[in-house]
Amino acid sequence: MSKTILVVDDSKAMRLIVRRTLRQAGFGDFEVQEAANGLEALERIGQAPPALVISDWNMPEMNGIELLRELNARKVSVRFGFVTTEGTPDMRAMADEAGALFLIAKPFTPEQFESALRPLLS
Amino acid sequence: MTPVVQSICLDALTESTGELTATVLGGWSFQALGEAIEFGAGHGAYLGLVAQDEPVQVGIVVDGGGCQLLSKSLLGMEPSDEDLPPADVSDAMCEIVNIIAGGLKRRVSDRMAITMGLPIFVSGHPLPNQQQAVLARTLKLGDVSVCVLLLTQKPNSMPASRSGVAMQTAGQKPAKEHSA
Question: What fold, for A4-116?
């Protein structure tokens, strides 16, 4: 398994917070790469698929659900989850339907990361 | 948006800010001090949303020092660390309003459909016009006083765009100020 996690978020602050939380949750041995929107993420995933993509939902250029659907359309198999403010049941259902493995609502704790990511990255 | 729904939304915003304080701000103390009448001279992060087909702005207004402290805490820095450049403060404050607006959406999703926009950070505080109403609450996050607010269109006000900017149509009389 690749030892890379791709964090996709248009906010530099949130990318930094996700990095920090990954470290606090015990995933400090993974290399964390960043993309500021779905288009950038598509390019990075095309170059080298990471072990996991952690994506925001609302982003300019290409949002998170569009990114996941585009990956599906291209038949790219990569573990994918959302870290987003959009934690309503409707959005959870939409994410689930598109194949997302988790949806963590902001604000989050390291424990939530540990619980959602550990089964995927062990 | 009726006064009751506004009040529910303001309570949800308050809870959401408390949740932010307890988590990504590192467990700062949190206190709701009451309704705010004045916002002081500060900076504001705002996020436009559409709630019940009505444009609403959610905001958080803080003075410059408070913006630095909140941003540093969000980024895991110490208060005594060197001040962040304006672009980083803007980014962090936008993320804060994004999180509290998302918390509002989550908390009222069984009552109303909300579509969220993208946040902006501005210098200064809101000056609502006669068609807009502001409901605000002062909160204490650690040592930082902030004001969370909802800016809505008053009942019977002019048609509004989805961005929350009032638009006057040709031949339409200005709406009367709502005194409620």
Answer: Rossmann fold (3.40.50)
